[in-house]
Amino acid sequence: MAKILAIYGSKYGSTKEIVETLAKELENLKLITPAEFVREDKDYECVLIASGIYAEEIHPEIVNFVDKNERWLKQKKIILLGVCLAGQRGISYLDKLKKKLGSCIIWVGMAKGRLILNRLGEEDFTMMKIFANKVKMPFIDRDFIDPEELLDISSQINTIMKV
């Protein structure tokens, strides 16, 4: 089994929780944030890049990490995972990373996240309220994290890593 470095960007904790859950099912995985990255981490065979999606954008720490490390990342097997309320319907939010990293990507997917209104910063709270009104969605806490979905994702990743 290959060694996997999982780098995640999480603003309110859903992405972190999801990647920690996946780490329990994936073999030989090291879990870090971009700020925790050290030179020795370049030795991993595979890099799982996980990002929360905010206002239809990839977490800025992940964008910056990929921009700064694009050259060596393109020499690795890359797994992309996005986390948003829309789940698989939000897959296009990862297009920027897919275009940048290209053919080294071996798996791309989305997981459903969580929205806890009292955890949001003022700007995000206002933005979500406007969005909810626009799409006529109730402006309430939402928890779409699905343990079965996460087991399926970890199973898919374990399968492709064994090939």
TrEMBL record:
InterPro entries noted in UniProt? Flavodoxin_dom (IPR026816), Flavoprotein-like_sf (IPR029039), Protoporphyrinogen_IX_DH (IPR052200)
Leader sequence range is none
TM region(s), chain numbering: none
Sequence ranges assigned to domain Flavodoxin in this UniProt record? 7-133
Query: Pfam families, alphabetically?
Result: Flavodoxin_5
Full protein name? Flavodoxin domain-containing protein
